[in-house]
Each structure stands twice: as C-alpha cells, then as structure tokens.
Amino acid sequence: MAPDYRFLRACRREPVDRTPVWMMRQAGRYLAEYREIRAQHSFLEMCRTPELAAEVTVQPLRRFDFDAAIIFADILLPLPGMGIDLTFAAGEGPVIGNPVRTEADVRALTPLTPEEDVPFLAEAIRLVRREIEGRAPLIGFSGAPFTLASYVLEGGGSKNFVATKTLMYAQPHVWHLFMDKVADVIVSYLRYQIAAGVQAVQLFDSWVGILSPGDYREYVLPYSQRVIASLGDSVPVIHFGTDTATLLPLLREAGGDVYGVDWRLSLADAWEMIGPDAGVQGNLDPIVLFAPPEVIESRVQAVLDSAGARAGHIFNLGHGVLPSTPPDHVGVMVEAVHRLSAR
Predict the structure, then answer these.
(1) Does 264 qualify as catalytic in the annotation?
(2) Strands 86-89 and 93-96
(3) Is 62 a catalytic residue?
C-alpha cells in the first residue's frame, strides 16, 4: 500500500494533521553539502549525472523535516533536444547560443525525444524514489510555455522582454507556431518524469507576471491549458507564477490542482481570487529567512492565519530560497510550520 503522504493529501484538499512544507530551490546553494559537490562539477554536469542529481535532491531531507523533495534539474534541460544551444556561464546564468527570432528558426526546432534527450532525468528520479520511499514524495517540474519560450527568444534572462513581446505583437502567427512546439515539448518532458516516478509536478511560469491579463489570455493561456490538460489526473499539478496578482483567475482557468502564490498578495485574498475548490501554495517572502528566529516564527504564523487552516494549503516561500540564506533559519521555518499548524 502506498504511503499516505501529508503533501499529497494537501494537493487533493484532504484533511492533514499539520500543514505540509517544502521550498522551491530547496536543493541548492544555501547548503554547504551542495556547494562541496558544485565545486567539483559544472551545473549541467550535476543535472546530467543521475547519481549527483539524486544526491543533491535528497540532501535537504536529511537536514530538515520537509514534506516533499523536488528533483534536482533545470527548466531549460529540454532545450538541447529541440536544437537549442544551451550553456551556463559562470555568474551569468543560462545562455542561449542560437536564440529563436524568425519563422525559419521556429520551423527548424525539433520535437523532444525524452528517452534520448534527457535519459539522465528518469534515472535520477528512480534513484531518489528508492532512497526516500516512505519518507516523502517526489515532485517533478517544468517551465511553463511562456517562461520557456521567453528564455529561447531572449537568449537568456531579460528585464523588458523586448524580443518576446515583439514576436507576440508583430508576428502573432509565428508566436503561436512557436508556442505550439514549446507546449508539445513540455508535455513530453512532464509525462516522461511522471512515467519515471514523480508523484506531483509543478509548472513554473516565473516570468508571466510581465504580461497584462489580455495578453495572457490571447498568447499564453491556451498553451498552459493544453499542457495541464494533457496530464489528466495522473498526478497533482501545481501551477506557479510570480507577480501574478492580476492573473490568478486566468491561471486558474488554465488549470491545476494547487496554485503557487508569491508574497505580494495575502493567501486569503489569493484564495478568494482562485476559488475555494483549489489548493494554494505559499507564500512567505524568502527574505524573511534572513530575519531573527522570532520574526520568522511570527511571519509563519501570519501565513498560516491567512490560510485559515483550510484544506489544501501547502506552505512554501513565494519564490525560491536565496543562496545566502542561513540554513538554520530554514530549520526554524520548517519546525514552526509543523508546530503552529498542528491540528
């Protein structure tokens, strides 16, 4: 009989004994044990070596009482399989060597074949499942269509998203052709992770907050909706975006079981916008973890109060944990969530 994990019960909006908690980027640079491995390997090497990816995935669960693990990977890992040149420059993050700009560029993109393009990911998932079975479930993830497309169009990170929005507004037929291909890749990528054994998935739309509601509906919603619908009821889907206070009803329309909320909006207000028949994840400001323990505890209590002990709340940060976060303060947060939310 499969373990009745607290995190998965919350995803299904079932009663739990206490609020489950995990952190975005919980496997990462704030941990000394991660930095020791990273000092010997490139980021992509770590992602593409199943034993390393599995080790890093499990590290935070050895130190903290998290209610879920998230596989160590990156939202850009499917890009090389599409014909995109991806590197990670020291101190600069991802760099796309051949950004997509024209219709010919879009038509040249190839479908993802996960068994050939990301086989290391399935093996890492299997290794992690074997190690943490009975302890916690494993989350898989992907970038959402808009965020993944924007990386490819901009050639990396961006402040103004000029290339992205220019394609949307000036060549909408090319935009839709491109988003069709991106959505298909994400569907293949997530289904592959689910087949390998992840027990929930999160769709990261980290950059979607730059859009107006009208632009989201016209240029993005159909593709996120298609990705989420394609997964059916196989596993719970967490739909996460940042700076989405004006977009939450549209994210709900696009689909998901749980909606990630950043700290710019109270959970109570966000839940009202999303609707009572969905789960909500969030939403502590990551900077709170730099404050003294008593402040962390009071802010944890405020988030729990805003959630109101309703079924379907998963505690998380409003975005990823920052690399310079004191690990002990992460422990304070996790312990406080469990103690203060005990039913």
Answers:
(1) no
(2) antiparallel
(3) no
